[in-house]
Amino acid sequence: MHIRTAIRRIKKYRPTTPAEFAWAGVPLYETKPVGAGVFREVLGVVDLPLVVKFPISDGKDGNISDGRRHTNEEVCRINKLSGFPKMRKFLPKIYYHDPKAGVVVMRWYPDYDKDYEEEDMLGHMIQRLVYDMTGVMLSDVHTGNVRSHNGKHGGRTILIDLGY
C-alpha cells in the first residue's frame, strides 16, 4: 500500500482506535509501540513510514482530555510555525488530524544513529536556524557553550562561545 492510499482510507473512515485503523485497512504495529509519553502512545503503520499518536487515559474514568488537548496544541503550533518558511524543514509532516478524538497521523522519522547525541543535533539545528535567519555561520553550539543569563532553569539562554 502507498501512503496516499493509507491517508485516503484514514480520511474516509476516521478511525480513532488501533482496531478501527485495522478495519479501515491501515493496520498498526500494536505489539511494538514506536513510543509513548505522558499524554499519548505512538504506533507505527505496518510497512509505511507513518505513525499514529493516540491520547491515553489519565487513569481517572478513562478520561483522555489531556492527551487530546496536547495533540491539538501540538498541531496548532506546527501549523503556526509552518507559516515561517525557514522553520518548515524542522517540522514533522502531518497527514491527518482529528481534533475531536485527539488522533494525529504523521510521518515517521528514525532516531539518530548511536554515533550522535540529541543535544549535539539540537546544536546543529540552532546553527542552521541562526544561519538561515542571519547569514552568520556558527559551528560550535553544544552543551559546553550554552549558559543561562541568571543561572536558573528557564532563564534566557546565552551562547557563550561563538569563536568557530
Q: If you had to describe this structure to a student in words, what would you say it looks like?
A:
The structure is a single chain. With 164 residues, the chain is of the alpha+beta class. The protein has two domains: 105 residues, 2-Layer Sandwich (Phosphorylase Kinase, domain 1), CATH 3.30.200.20; 42 residues, no CATH class. Helix content is 31%, strand content 18%. It has four helices and seven strands. The strands form two sheets. The protein has a five-stranded antiparallel sheet. A hairpin with a 4-residue loop joins β4 and β5. 16% of the residues are buried. The mean pLDDT is 88.
Question: What's the short version?
Answer:
This protein has 164 residues and is α+β, with helices and mostly antiparallel strands. It has helices at residues 3-13, 18-23, 65-81, 118-134, and strands at residues 35-36, 40-44, 50-55, 94-98, 103-107, 146-148, 157-159.
Provide the descriptors you would attach to this structure in a database record.
alpha+beta, elongated, two-stranded antiparallel ribbon, Phosphorylase Kinase, domain 1, 164 residues
Note the topology.
Elements (H helix, E strand, L loop, with lengths): L2 H11 L4 H6 L11 E2 L3 E5 L5 E6 L9 H17 L12 E5 L4 E5 L10 H17 L11 E3 L8 E3 L5
Antiparallel strand pairs: 1-2, 2-3, 3-5, 4-5, 6-7
